[in-house]
Amino acid sequence: MLQQCLKIFRFSFAANTPSLATPWSLRPFKTEVSLPIIRFHDAQPTGQSIALDQEIFNQPIRRDLVQRLVRYTDLYDKKVTKATLALRDAAASGAKNHPQKKTGRARQGHRQRPGRNKGIKAHGRKIRSLRIDLPRKVRLQAYKVGLTAALIEGKFTVIDTEKLNEGKTKHLVQLMKGFESFTQPLLIVTSVDPDDLFLRASRNLENLETCTVREFNIIKILKFKSILITKEAIIQLTESLKQRKLTLLGDNKIVKKKYSEYPIEEYDPNKPLDLKFKVLREYLEDFEKLKKEGQLDKFIQDMPKTKKVGRINTINHH
């Protein structure tokens, strides 16, 4: 049943002109694309499908952007951790070899200078990061191109959930035998909060790798030929890319709220002010005291007035 469903899907998919040979300026799909949802426990279609966002899964194929993102991701955490000795770190007495003049020999500097026996290496390695810069918009577009290319190649299979009744490896192997792609390395993409029993059961499988939406990057898209992704993971991935956030690449670890999401309280003049700082509370007490005694106007008149002259503030006292 599953194979027949996938064959019918691939036939209708091919009619939608999915080809990696499409010119880079054109979108590969002419109409909206949807994927059938497969039941994870018996590998049978649920009769439902999920529509994919055209702004994410239908982008022109730009191999140059994908190559730049792969290089950026590969070098993101790489560093040169070993360094050669500098002249100041070399083990030497620091004494001069021989007098500067009147010896008939060439002038000699440091005993461990480059070119001398047991000397340091000129322009040696230094501890540094190999990370390269890539604009945020380029990373976002390249990631969308990778998702589109994986969809054209038929890598994605949408499952309803990854939750298991028991965290046993043999139970998961029995479920995965219903999928034809289990004979080769397989990737299962889950939501941000995966099932603990599923993680425990999939820990010791050699051909199976799991990751969350945040860990799903361009390297994994290109590495695996078959990708099982949950329905909730596709929804979270779509919402994340719609908001132009790339949490999977180490950015936006703290999601900032919009101004409209913060609660705004209306001002109530009868409600006492709740000031956080002690200095402000003391100023407020002095203000209330002067207002109660009727000396507020006199206090304002006696305050020194400031007069700006260029960039210098001068104070005129009465």
TrEMBL record:
- In this chain, composition skew of type Basic residues spans 98-122
Origin superkingdom:
Eukaryota
Q: Which GO terms describe its biological process?
A: translation
User: Species name for this entry?
Assistant: Paramecium octaurelia
Q: Name one GO molecular function term.
A: structural constituent of ribosome
Query: Could you tell me what this protein is called?
Result: Large ribosomal subunit protein uL4m
User: Which InterPro entries does the annotation name?
Assistant: Ribosomal_uL4, Ribosomal_uL4-like
Provide the residue span(s) of the region labelled Disordered. Answer: 90-122
Cellular component annotations (GO), alphabetically ordered = ribosome
